[in-house]
Every structure is written in C-alpha cells, then in structure tokens.
C-alpha cells in the first residue's frame, strides 16, 4: 500500500513519487494551502495539499486529527527557511497528488502532545496513549533490549526452552495466582513466580545453557516498580562457577546497553560484598553515583547517656551517621522534611549535628544531642567521617533494618537533590557474598535470603549446622543506579547439601518431599553443578528510558489496584463457568451472581 | 570447568589436553581397561581409563551410568578399525589423566535407549526422559525454529510487543482458564486464548508490524495435538492486503524450513479456495501429498432408489465417492476395517463398488449397491472419477460434515497405507476464501467461522445483510501435509462494517459493547487496515521432527487429562489461599478441605 514509512522520506527521495500511509498528526491551513503532518511509527512527514487539485483538496479539507490516510505525491525540497531540523524528513515535504481516507476518526479523548494527563486517563485510553511518540520509543527500545539479550545468549550457546505457565502452587515465597482445574475438581494450578525449579530441572536434563524471556506472576500488593505479571530474562548454565557466571552475565548486560542504548558500562563491574554494601550504604542495591556514605557508630554509642543511641547500640540494633558535606547550609525546614521522609521507613526521628568548627570539638558542634554524647563518641564521629567545618551529619539509631532503610533512602534522596553525585550516568555493581539465611523474629526460625536452592560457599557447608547466621551463599545481584536489575546464584547440585539446607530451614524430609520432591528426585540422578541469574526486563528498560514507572514500558499494564482499565479486567463471569470449575464465590461476595444451590 | 563439549572433540584436537564435563552414558570394562562414553548436550566422546594411573582408575571403577564427571586427558586417534563413524568424535578417544565425580547418580528408572516406555513413565521421570538424544534434538530444533521465526520477523520490521496474560474472559470461543482476583472480590481474570484483540489494538496504536511468540490457553478436552497451554507465533501488520500478507508469511515459513531443517518448500505455495478443498478433499487442511480425490455425486443421486444415497442428496447432505486406483485388490477384511474407521467420524456405513470391467457398465461392477443405482448415476460415477478396471470406489452419503470428515480421513489413511502419494516430502497449501459464517442448526443462528473481527471480501459486504451464508471472508490458512499450521485474516478496520458483522451474528449493540467495547472504541479512533496470522509453533515443530505427539516437542507437557506428572500439578491448596481469593469449593468436592463456615 505504501512505498515508504513517513519518517523515512528524506532529501534522497527528491522528485520521486511516493505513497505513504499514516495518521493525521496535525492539520494547518495557511495561505489557502493545507499542511498535513502525516505520522507513522517511524516519524512525521509534511504533506502539502494545494487547491489546484480540487478533488484531492476537498478530501484534504475533510480530514481531522487521527484520520488514517493514504497519500501519493512528489517529494520536494521545503522552501528555504522552513526546514525542520528536528525531523529526519525535515528538509523535504510531499506535494500531494492523491489522497484517500482509509479510516476517519472521532475526536480523540486528548491531544497526543498533552503532557498533563492522569494515569487513569492514559490507561483507560491506552490505544491512543500508545500513539504518543515517547510510548512508541519506549516499546521499541524494549524490543531492541530483548533482542539484544537474545542475540548475545544465542551466540553464547544458550537455548530458549519454554517452561509451563500452568504449574504447581508452592507455599514458599510470594502469593500465587491460582487457576482452578475443571478436569480435577478441587485442584488448582498456579501461575509461576519464576521458572526457578524448571530451569534447574533443565540443567539436570543436560540442556547445559538455558534462557527464556518469560512472564512471571506474583499476587502481591503493588508498588511503582511492581506488576502482577512481569517479565524476566531467565538464565541458567551448567559447569560454571560463581565467578565465571558473573563475568558472562556482566558481559551480557554490557552488550545489551551498548547495542540498545549505545552506552558503555564499566568493564569489569565493581564487586562489593553484601556486608560492605550494608555497612557503607545501608542497601544491597546501592546507588554508587551518590557519593555519600554511612559512618558506623554502633560500637562507640553503647555507653553514651543518650538513650536513643545507647538503646539500639546495646540491644543488637545499629547506630550510623550520614555525613553531608556542606550540609550546614540545610534549613530547618529541609531538616524537618527529611525527618518526615525517614519516618516512611520507620525511623522515629532524625538526629543531626552541624559541624561549625571541628577544631573546637564539642563546642564547635551545633545540635540538641551533643550534650548527651561522650567526648569519645564525638571524637569518633569526626574521625571516622572526616567531618569538616560546614558539614552536617544525620543519625539513624534503631534496628539495623530501620537504620539501613531510612538512612539508605535519605542518602539517595539528598545525594540526588543536593548534587552529591560522582557524575557517572551508569554505575553498575555486583553485590556478592549474601548470607544464606536471615532470622525471622516472629516465627523464631531461619528463612532463606535468596531461595532454598542457593548453594552455600564451599567452605561454609559445615556452618549450615553449627552457625547458620554466619553461612554465606554463592549468590550475587547486579545493582544499577540503585535498582536491583538482576540476581542469581549457584544452586545446590548435591542432594546431601540440599537436605542440610532444608534442615537449617526447619523443613523436614516429608515437607521437603511434598513441596520439592521432583527437584530432590532430580538431584539424585546426576545433577551437574549449575547456576544462573534472572534480569528484570521491565526494570532494565525503565532505567534505560528514564521512565517514572514500569507501566511506561509495558504496553498494557495493570494499575496499582491490579486492574486493566482498557479491557476492564478482572470482571465477573457466568455462574456456569464457576460451576464447571467446581468453585463458587464466598457468600460475602455473592452479590451480583445468583446464589448457588447445591 | 571444561575446554570442550564432549561432542565437539575431533581429530583436530589430536595430542591436546582437554577437560570435559558430562554424564556417563555407558561404561565398559574391556581387557583391564575401562571405557566411558561421556555425554553432554553436543554428543558423546569415548574416554579411556588405563590402570597405569591407579588413583584415577579407582575412581573410574566406581562410576556408574548417569554419574556426572569432570575428566582431563589427552586426545588420541582410536586404534585402526575401532572408529565409530556415527559419532562426530568417532575418530578419536581421550586418554584419561584425571577424573572427578562431580555428582553420583542412583540407578535411573530406565535406560536412556529404551524405546518401549509408556508415556506415563516418560512424563513422570521427564528429567531423565529429556536426556534422551531424540528429546534433546527435538527441543534444540524447536529453539532453532523459534529463532528462525524471530530473525525473519525482526529483519522485516516486526516488533515483539508483550500482551497481558491476565486478561478478560470473553464468552465467545473456547472455554477460558480463569484466575480469581484477590483485590477484586468475585471477579476473575482469564488467561488469553490468543492475543487477537491486543494485537489489533497495537495496530490501531500505530505499531505497524507486531509479532510475539507466546503462550495461549484453552480449557478444552485434549487430543494428541492439543495442550492446555500452547505456543503461538502471533503476527499482525498494518497497511497490507490479503495477498501481500500471504506472500510475506509464506516467505517466512519457507525461510524457517530452510534455516531450521534445510528443506526448500515450494515457491510460491499453491492456493486453493475453501470450496475447492472441501469438494476435492473433504478437508480445509488437505494433505496434498495424497493423490486420491473425491468424486462429487450429490446431484446424480437425488433420484436413485438407494435411499442411503438419495436421502442425503435430497435433504441438503452430500454424496461423494473416493476412487482408489487398484483398490479392487482390497480384501474383505480391509474393507471392514475401513468401515469401522469411518464410523469414528460418524459415518453409518461404507458402500463401495469394484470396477472389474468398466467397459461392461453395470455388469462389470461388483457391489451390493449397484442394483439400486440408476444407469445415469453409474455412468456419472465412471465418467467423473475416470475409474478403470481394477479400481474401487468408496462412497460417503450423509450430512456434508460427516461425508467430508469420514471420507476425508479415509482418503489420508488409504493414501498413506497404500502408497497413493505424490512423492513430495512437504506439501504446503494456502486455503483461502473461507465463508464468513456457518449456520448453527442447534442455536438456529449464524456463527463466525474464523472470529467476529474477520473482514468480509470487499465485494461481499452487502451480503452480510442479504445472504450471510454466501459471504466470503478475507481469511487464509496454511495447511502442511494435512496439518493446519497457521491461519489468519485481514481484520475489519471500520466500525460500520464491524457493526454489520455483529448484526449478522445476532450480537446486539449492548452485548457487543459489553464484550468487545474496547475494540469497538479503538476502531473509532482511526484504525488502519490490518491483518495477520498465527502459526502453531508446537505443530510446526512436531511436523518437522516427525514426532507422534506435540508432547514430544514440549519440555514439560500436560497429559491428556491436563496433568503434569512431574510436578503433580494441579494440586490441592490451602483453604487460606481460597479465602484470600473469595472463593470456596463446591460442596461435592469439599472432601479433602475443611468445609468453610462463613
């Protein structure tokens, strides 16, 4: 139907007849002539409709925004001074000979260039929203990224194997989406939270190198970077250790950034043990562009009179400072705002000291809390942080989790707002040496930090029984600019080690067999050493585009209430459908649907 | 961990030290030496363990089938006469210096080369089953095929856009898999039967060319070529007509066969209107390798005395013959078997005539039914079919559907069994010009043959109201060797035509708005002319591998009872999970789960 994409017509086509199809982006009447900006996926071109072709001109007069046209015309140079350098086609225009309205359009609910739309409006009219050039760019980039992943993995011998969507509910982890079975009354499939077990089974089956770009599902409350269904670049390999996997994976992500974004990421990526990341940044996905760091103070706060510090310091909590160079300039209002901000993360307050004159010691410090701190503590603060005149330190003192979350978030916020940045656009970092377990204070038991199939470090296998809290895992995450974009581990390939881990997790043999029997069976039949990683595709693309939300890189996302405003899903279904599935609604919700009699 | 894949070591590596990882495929002791066939994804290599390295030899003595080994050794030429030409590595062997057992294995449930396993055994131990070389080959070929699809589509400007898995139930079509919503009590998502509506929305949104290799779901009773979840190569394009789409798609499938299988399919594919396919072969996916054809006899059987023929011929049914050249040789037992076979398709019998001496007319024919047929009818049989001495004709007389199904299946069966084949390995054919509607005798209404978004032929739009049964669609299927491997259509892009189709289908405006409102809305805002096609990936790969069932080209398939024997899905879930989802089991099935009290 067409000879060119609108966005591809250039001065190279001068004096050629072209046929174009696209949407009316804008129509202007100027000096008796009609100018139509015709738009397609590749861009805009200006079409000029002269009144000297009356039939064509009459049609041109009838067109409105978003009409679909097919036009034929001759490419000519725009008059000098009217070129548009922001368009590929900006040097030329098409003098229209013929015009056909392929489809009219009613007036769209909003202008495509309206930047002040609510997300509800955008998602309700997603089809129009997706016509907006930045949404087109986002989804085209997403495709470029996924193809870059595929090409690298393909070239490195990885094989895409599809794993099931209708699988078994596993009570570990997040909440499953369930699918009632019609054939097996009272039974349910679950949608996969990840293909974790299947990819391990594929390694045991000898596929050696596996990948899949696949949907995963978690029925959790949503945040800006979460969707009920999300896309994972899922990767697993046999016969490679931790270090080799990390090298290959960072080479992959470097290639993806180079191909899709023409960005060179560092080679190699820096690596940082989990313990160091938490100590210095309070986060296992530190934004290394931010130059601010924590100052560890727990040890020197044990004996101070200030109970807000000594309490956490003597009861397993953490006390840390965050030095803000030049922070003495912060206004009372700003400090109040930061205090409110850390409250979101559970911090009950935000103590601070301004260093007016470090040489004067206690007397050079301005703060409500200085009087309750010992000379030793104050000296340690200055010495460890390198505080200088004009700086300010914020303090966190609480459980380690609250201090890390609150001060870690404050670090990023102030870093970005006040420009404590190292100037790099992209700062990836491997975070390694994660603990195997964390202690659940509520349930009084150890839980897996990663998942129960993660291998302990070889030299820590004995700690599984003697001191699980000290046991480190062969696990690694990639953080980029403060976002976790991928994570993985070397898996346990020997049944005896897997059993020890289950014992540490207080999962008895019967429970283990019930939940993971098929994996445990597979481990007995010659499982190779294997490990892998999964990238969050939505997050990677969101980072690349600079979008505010992953919803801007997904064609048809759900709202934070897990709804699709376009199709109005979820929705009610016929009672017959429920009957076929051997389920009924609980009474409380049986309002719109006839109460069932059986 | 390794320098080579086992299957890649060749004479080019002579005298090199290599390190290999893999599974013990076979171990033989011969003349005091241990031979281990070590296997990985790429093939086998023979490893020779000499007793002159005692530590290594002791380990070698301990290994059993399916142990995972890492071996280091020197590549040497096999002694003359012991080469194995069926292996890439067959000229060489590796003299083992070091051996490490990476993981032992218990005795596998079956030998990998056992060809007599039940499907239940294979699916229950799928991980071991997947180690079998033909399963490895099938899944590797599947990957090659899907990458060939992607490469062609990418090179032709198609963009992979992910569409939702959690979407809305549409009461049209097959039964949906439903997913209860936790956030919206009493509401349900549905898993997509295809991304049909979303891909049309993407065209309206201006993405121009879309593809996706994606899972689709139908909760239907299963057959050999059906799975609850199946994979579709889903394609849609804007601004292309029927003919251009078909040309591009056949070029795609030709490229896929050439790249993945090194097979050259015909260029161009033959095309055949639906009416012709049904008339000649009783099938809209005819196996054109089979040379047998139907003889149309309905018109000449209206007045015959034989009620079995005249009944259907005068009441809207069909009477057709299937001439089997040389079929006079068929035994009574064979004819009985075929009679039983057509019974599967609803035929109540299988009349036949043997042509002993065509020149003698009625007297040269042997059959119980000849006496009840008129001379005109017998003459038409011979003339239309070109029957010769020694041939046999089978007859079908029933509703057109039964005749087509029964005689169509018989055609394929006899064609393959008796060698009435044209010698081609691959016979693709486009079947075109499908009717828009078929009449549902039970519901006394027209239903869509394809789906309600299929465009009628331009010149048939008026028939939508005046004579729906005569209205043909811009729909096309690709059949290959008797399998439908893909199908598609040009879609309706104008709201007024879509409304006419809904009227013909007796779907009123309110119902249409309720079910497809978001598509109808989209059509109002400037929908481009568009159309597409979807290939069934499972079927394409099954055909390519010659597998008996699509289950042999799926890593983790479900049984015909929609179960996964490996993970034992579906399964029971906690009542708490159901409570979260606002559903409970119907009483009949509330056996294993506590009866709910609210």
TrEMBL record, chains A, B:
Residues 139-557 form the Aminoacyl-transfer RNA synthetases class-II family profile domain. It is found in: Cytoplasm. L-aspartate binds at residues 172, 218, 450, 491. It comes from the Bacteria. GO terms for molecular function: aspartate-tRNA ligase activity; aspartate-tRNA(Asn) ligase activity; ATP binding; nucleic acid binding. One of its GO terms (cellular component) is cytoplasm. It is an enzyme of class 6 (ligase). InterPro entries: Aa-tRNA-synt_II (IPR004364), aa-tRNA-synth_II (IPR006195), aa-tRNA-synth_II/BPL/LPL (IPR045864), Asp-tRNA-ligase_1 (IPR004524), Asp-tRNA-ligase_1_N (IPR047089), Asp/Asn-tRNA-synth_IIb (IPR002312), AspRS_core (IPR047090), GAD-like_sf (IPR004115). It holds the Pfam family tRNA-synt_2. Belongs to the class-II aminoacyl-tRNA synthetase family. Type 1 subfamily. Aspartyl-tRNA synthetase with relaxed tRNA specificity since it is able to aspartylate not only its cognate tRNA(Asp) but also tRNA(Asn). Reaction proceeds in two steps: L-aspartate is first activated by ATP to form Asp-AMP and then transferred to the acceptor end of tRNA(Asp/Asn). This is Aspartate--tRNA(Asp/Asn) ligase. The lineage of its organism: Bacteria, Pseudomonadati, Pseudomonadota, Betaproteobacteria, Rhodocyclales.
């Amino acid at each position: 139907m067409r000879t060119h994409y609108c966005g591809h017509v250039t001065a190279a086509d001068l004096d050629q007849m072209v046929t174009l199809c696209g949407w009316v982006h804008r129509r202007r009447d100027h000096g008796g002539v009609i100018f139509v900006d015709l738009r397609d996926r590749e861009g805009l071109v200006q079409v000029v409709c002269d009144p000297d072709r009356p039939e064509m001109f009459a049609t041109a007069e009838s067109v409105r925004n978003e009409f679909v046209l097919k036009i034929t015309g001759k490419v000519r140079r725009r008059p000098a001074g009217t070129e548009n350098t922001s368009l590929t086609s900006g040097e030329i225009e098409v003098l229209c000979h013929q015009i056909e309205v392929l489809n009219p359009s009613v007036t769209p609910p909003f202008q495509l260039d309206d930047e002040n739309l609510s997300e509800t409006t955008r998602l309700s009219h997603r089809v129009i929203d997706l016509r907006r050039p930045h949404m087109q760019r986002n989804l085209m980039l997403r495709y470029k990224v996924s193809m870059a992943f595929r090409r690298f993995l393909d070239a490195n011998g990885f094989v895409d194997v599809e794993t099931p969507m209708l699988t078994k509910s596993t009570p570990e982890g997040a909440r499953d989406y369930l699918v009632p079975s019609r054939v097996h009354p009272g039974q349910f499939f679950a949608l996969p939270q990840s293909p974790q077990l299947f990819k391990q089974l594929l390694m045991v089956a000898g596929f050696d190198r596996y990948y899949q770009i696949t949907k995963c599902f978690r029925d959790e409350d949503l945040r800006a970077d979460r969707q009920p269904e999300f896309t994972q670049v899922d990767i697993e390999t046999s016969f490679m250790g931790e270090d080799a996997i990390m090298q290959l994976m960072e080479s992959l992500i470097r290639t993806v950034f180079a191909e899709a974004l023409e960005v060179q990421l560092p080679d190699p990526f820096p690596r940082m043990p989990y313990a160091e990341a938490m100590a210095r940044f309070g986060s296992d996905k530190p934004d290394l562009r931010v130059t601010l760091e924590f100052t560890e103070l727990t040890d020197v706060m044990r004996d101070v009179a200030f109970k807000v510090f000594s309490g956490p310091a003597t009861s397993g909590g953490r006390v840390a400072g965050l030095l803000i160079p030049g922070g003495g300039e912060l206004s009372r209002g700003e400090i109040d705002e930061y205090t409110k901000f850390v409250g979101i993360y559970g911090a009950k307050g935000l103590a601070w000291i301004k260093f007016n004159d470090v040489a004067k010691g206690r007397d050079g410090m301005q703060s409500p809390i200085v009087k309750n701190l010992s000379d030793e503590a104050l000296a340690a603060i200055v010495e460890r942080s390198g505080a200088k005149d004009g700086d300010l330190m914020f303090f966190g003192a609480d459980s380690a989790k609250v201090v890390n979350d609150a001060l870690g978030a404050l670090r990023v916020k102030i870093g970005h707002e006040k420009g404590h940045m190292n100037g790099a656009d992209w700062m990836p970092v491997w975070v390694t040496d994660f603990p195997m377990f964390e202690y659940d204070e509520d349930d009084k038991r150890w839980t897996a930090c990663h998942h129960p199939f993660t291998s302990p470090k070889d030299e820590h296998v004995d700690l599984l029984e003697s001191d699980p809290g000290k046991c480190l895992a062969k696990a690694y995450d990639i953080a980029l600019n403060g976002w976790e974009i991928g994570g993985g581990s070397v898996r346990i390939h020997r049944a005896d080690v897997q059993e020890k881990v289950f014992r540490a997790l207080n999962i008895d043999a019967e429970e283990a067999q019930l939940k993971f029997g098929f994996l445990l069976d597979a481990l007995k039949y010659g499982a190779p050493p294997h490990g892998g990683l999964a990238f969050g595709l939505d997050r990677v693309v969101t980072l690349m585009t600079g979008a505010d939300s992953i919803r801007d890189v997904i064609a048809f996302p759900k709202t934070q209430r897990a709804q699709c405003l376009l199709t109005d899903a979820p929705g009610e279904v016929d009672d017959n459908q429920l009957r076929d599935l051997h389920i009924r609604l609980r009474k409380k919700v049986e309002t719109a649907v006839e109460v069932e009699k059986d």
